[in-house]
Write a structure and sequence with these properties.
The chain is of the alpha+beta class. The protein is built from 2 helices and 8 strands. The strands form 3 sheets. Strands 2-5-1-6 form a 4-stranded antiparallel sheet. Helix 1 runs antiparallel to helix 2.
Length: about 120
């Protein structure tokens, strides 16, 4: 693969997903995998009451979005994520980036850059 390709993992509040998806579509990213997950970080959870009994909820509902991008769109992804998700409050989310060394499109046998669709064909 001649160009570096990265896997970007975005974890944030579930209610922010529609706005995040729209922001990513605007910069040309339409291929993604979305998971409903639970987790906690600095916010540590919250207290809730169920039938008058106090209950501590440590794992909060989150959404995780995985996508693959080339070097140039990586900066655009960071800008879109910050603009869309940042509120300044705990729970805004995290973005993790790892380099992708190879890929295989099983249907065609294509490898490397050719195995990707969308913005990775740059």
């Amino acid at each position: 693969m001649s160009k570096k390709i990265y896997k970007v993992e975005i974890v944030t509040r579930r209610e922010k997903f529609p706005a995040l998806k729209d922001a990513l579509n605007e910069i040309g990213i339409d291929g993604m995998t979305v998971y409903k997950v639970e987790g906690c970080g600095a916010q540590g959870g919250h207290l809730t009451y169920y039938r008058g009994v106090k209950r501590e909820v440590n794992l909060l509902p989150k959404i995780k979005v995985d996508l693959f991008v080339c070097e140039t769109p990586l900066e655009k992804v960071f800008e879109a994520v910050e603009k869309t998700l940042r509120t300044g409050e705990y729970g805004d989310g995290k973005v993790f980036v790892t380099e992708c060394y190879d890929a295989l499109r099983v249907r065609t046998g294509e490898r490397g850059e050719a195995a990707f669709i969308g913005p990775c064909e740059c």
